Ig domain-containing protein (Rhizobium bangladeshense), 69 residues
Amino acid sequence: MPDVSGGSGRYEYALATAAPLPAGLVFDSATGIFSGRVQIAGDFSWSILVRYVATGAMTTTVARIIVVT
């Protein structure tokens, strides 16, 4: 999850890349949290768009997950 700080309101999150998540992994756009259990090995990464609702300010960050089985 992106480390977001500052502001006093709500943040929204969205996957900003078209690459699908591996089977077993889900992304919660309300919280920015990945959860689940990936069953295949690999090096996965996605761009995440973070928007501060109060001002509309946006930034992106990269989430990377390495799975070793």
Remarks:
- The radius of gyration is 13 Å.
- The chain is about 0% helix and 50% strand.
- The mean pLDDT is 87.
